[in-house]
Amino acid sequence: MNKTLNKYLFLFMNFVILIGLFFVLFNSSVNLIIFPFAFGMLYALCWANQKIWLVAPAYIIAGAIFRPTLEFCICTLVCTFCLIVPYFVHILCKKNMKKWEFFLFSILGQTATVVFDIISGMFPLLPFVEILLGEVFMYACMSVFEAIIIRGFTNKLTNLEIVSLFSIIAVLSAGLAVLNINSFSFLKLFVCFVVFLFAFCSTPTLTLLVSVVAGLGAIIATNNAVFMAPFVLWALFALLFKKRFRVFMVIAVVAVELVIGFYFKLYYSFGIIEILPVLISSLIFLCMPKSWCKEISVIFNLSKDRVAMKNVVNRNREILHNRLGNLSEVFNDMNVIYRNLLKQGMTLDEVKTLLEQEIKEKICSFCPDRNHCHRTFPDSTKKVFDELITIAYQRGRATLLDIPSFLTSRCKQTTSILGSVNTLTAQYKKYMSMVRDVDTSKIIIADQLLGVSKIMGGLSKEVETNISFDTVRENKILDEMTYYNIICIDAVVFEKDIWTMEVSLVVKSEDSEKPRIVDVASKVCGKKMAIYEVFPSTRPGYTVINLKTAPKYDCLFGVSQKTKNGSKMSGDTYSIIKLNGDKILFAISDGMGSGEKAEHTSELSISLVENFYKAGFDNDIILSTVNKLLNLYKEEIFSAMDICIFDQKDGLVDFVKMASPNSYILSEDDCKTIETGALPMGIVEDAEPLIRKNAVKSKDFIILMSDGVSDSFGETEELKECIKSIKSKNPQEFADELLERALACNNGYAVDDMTVVVIKVLDF
């Protein structure tokens, strides 16, 4: 019950305030001849989604109180009718009225006023001047309502919005200038409070301007400049005594008013009633919660808060730079330690000496002919042992046929010697294999530690320099967004480096897909910008849009594949991912053979490569690590890898190849071959990739393929001629046609898994 009562009481209070507002605007005039402002406020309030069933009746009642004549009542009813009817028609049609429609219907709503003015003998142009001023005032009201009611107290007012706010204050001052009860001035009550508010919540310049604007409003309405000087003096002394406590400002302004009235006798009369407006507004200001003042100050002084915010950002970047640098050194030291832990295997000569000694102790030490063999014929005996160990090491097993006849004739332990050689050699090979695997694992870990060290070192350099924020451009973007009716509550512009400028915007979610956003950012920044990130804001109903300097090039791509005839799964896997720094990775992994095993190999290889590149590792570390990981498998796992990294900023392309077929760059007048090299991944532990760098330009095609496609053509020149003969400018159609021609070379039969990736370079 209490909630319902409070709700209706709140609505009633709003209704009374609206009646008072419209009554003041009905009284607002230019030299008491033209009264153009009330209808502009009516339409602007409805545009700002205020309750029309409250606003319209308040307008009619205020008009009847202002001028209770039949003619004027007809004028207010016609004006309201031209708003209510289209407003509810749009509601029934479930469509929002656009801003230009409010302007159109507001002009139609003044038809009765124009007719009555002409009939009354008013100068013919005055009604149209009245409409023009009313439309301008309506636009000003819409700008302010959009900033405060729709956007809320979250962002600094633009220059246009500040001018609009000042025009509303001037119009209200003009209306209040003629509304006095005896000697009580509602104008002084209003302006004194506004001066306090601006002095406490905005800049000194705006405070002085608002006092002048309020005085001008009174002059326009009454042709009397009596209030101009007091208003300016209020502003000056409010600013002079602006301290932490608001009471100092209040005391200063009240004192100035007393001096003006009693000492200088600036007013026609001055007494208790004349001083009451200043006292009441002072009391209201003192009772106003500080939280309200803080919210209001945001729309004027946001730039000050953001200076502190920007300093915090740069300070945090400095701290992050130092920490990343320290972490980089830690990981580099760990890399050195791991490399020093490598055991390294013994040489074959060391192995022979070790195994020979062990055989002597195990077999020969108990033989009665030991001295005869090792003292009488030491050289020949050692040579036999060396040869047996070498044969067992290289072939895997030594036999009786490998023992010389002179030894078998005098030695009774040949079988035992042979068994020991084979057993010890096999154990040693197994041990060395385990040591190599351990060492390989340590090298992999060391490589990753080195890679992490380099990444952190790069990040440390990236955040070393302070971000240069551009407040001028930020304000321009906010102004431009308002001009194009895009609600943008915040904008941050900064230079990431000498090549890249970034812009972060917080816009209304329904405006986030408007193409004007990119146009405005590009215009203000003086360079082409592109959206690279969009995500919901922490504030409900708003979206964060991040833009940065657009790269020079973009690309389209097409992929075409065919599985080997008779195979259920393809051993070819491709990947296309966006990397940091405006780079795009295209890769084809061709697992050994075809079918499930080949598919597993290629997917494993491509997945490892993808993740390493996304993490920011270097080419050499990535491929070396993946190669070693595959080499650790006890079963044979081989994979050909073809990687192309396209840099959108400068059009440079890195080709990284390991046993992959040739790649091609097709331009308008040439077809360049990027030759293959290196062994497949996983076959040799220390296989090095072949890396080539090339430049491309707009309209060039980059063609990657697996060996199932390249091997279908007889020679490289035949494949190049085929590529040059394809006329399609669409990369997907190009890939499809190249695959079809490769299949045609084998009568439509896929002798191996086949994959084609075609990239077309374009201007961004």
Summarize the structure in words.
Helices cover 59% and strands 14% of the residues. Helix 8 runs antiparallel to helix 9 (186-201), helix 8 (159-176) packs across helix 10 and helix 12 packs antiparallel against helix 13 (272-287). It folds into 5 domains: 11-153; 156-288, Arp2/3 complex 21 kDa subunit ARPC3, CATH 1.10.1760; 348-441, no CATH class; 468-549; 553-763, Phosphatase 2c, domain 1 (4-Layer Sandwich), CATH 3.60.40.10. It is elongated. The chain starts with a helix and ends with a strand. By secondary structure, the protein is an alpha+beta fold. The strands form 4 sheets. Strands 3-4-5-7-6 form a 5-stranded antiparallel β-sheet. A 5-stranded antiparallel β-sheet has the order 8-17-16-13-14. A 5-stranded antiparallel β-sheet has the order 9-10-11-12-15.
Ends: how far apart?
63 Å
Query: Helix coverage percent of residues?
Result: 55-70%
Number of domains: 5
Task: Assign an overall shape.
Answer: elongated
Largest sheet, strands/sense/barrel: 5 strands, antiparallel
The overall average pLDDT, rounded, is 79
CATH fold-level label of the largest domain: Phosphatase 2c, domain 1
- Please list the strands of the largest sheet in the order they lie side by side: 3-4-5-7-6
Give the class from helix and strand content and strand pairing: alpha+beta
Radius of gyration: 43 Å
